[in-house]
């Protein structure tokens, strides 16, 4: 036997890619996600390629994965895709300690993030 398959939560003209446990704070990752929201895929890829932010490389990989999912799994037209949603979530937080003066210790938090990209195919203009 096995468990029953899940039903598809996205529409037929949408594709999804999720990148989990990215080593950056959600606040910083959201700045990069905000850059590509609502833009066409080619333009978003170009902006991520020339972005000075370190995490832009990982976001670009996730976007390329979403494009590949749209093309291969859902048979969507790559030229009409745009970034419909780019949501950032909080993941685990590693806690470390750093020695300070007079025998004290300070806690250092190293946050991780999740990124969820949904691409949607634009409707044909007649």
Q: Explain this structure to me?
A:
With 126 residues, the protein is an alpha+beta fold. It has a single domain, classed as Alpha-Beta Complex (Ribosomal Protein L22, Chain A), CATH 3.90.470. Helix content is 29%, strand content 36%. It has a three-stranded antiparallel β-sheet with strand order 1-3-2, with helices on one face. Strand 2 (81-99) and strand 3 (105-121) form a beta hairpin. Helix 2 (41-49) runs antiparallel to helix 3. The longest helix is centred in the middle third of the chain and has 17 residues, at 56-72.
Which structural traits does this protein have?
about 130 residues; alpha+beta; Ribosomal Protein L22, Chain A; 3-stranded antiparallel sheet
Helices and strands in order, then pairings?
Elements: E1 14-22, H1 26-36, H2 41-49, H3 56-72, E2 81-99, E3 105-121
Helix pairs in contact: 2-3
């Amino acid at each position: 036997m096995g468990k029953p398959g899940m039903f598809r939560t996205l529409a037929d003209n949408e594709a999804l890619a999720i990148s989990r446990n990215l080593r950056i704070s959600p606040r910083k990752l959201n700045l990069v996600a905000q850059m590509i929201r609502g833009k066409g895929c080619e333009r978003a890829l170009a902006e991520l390629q020339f972005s000075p932010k370190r995490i832009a490389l990982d976001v670009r990989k996730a976007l390329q994965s979403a494009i590949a999912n749209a093309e291969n799994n859902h048979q969507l037209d790559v030229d009409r895709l745009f970034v419909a949603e780019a949501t950032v979530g909080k993941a685990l937080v590693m806690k470390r300690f750093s020695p300070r003066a007079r025998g004290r210790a300070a806690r250092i938090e190293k946050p991780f993030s999740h990124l969820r990209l949904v691409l949607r195919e634009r409707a044909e203009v007649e």
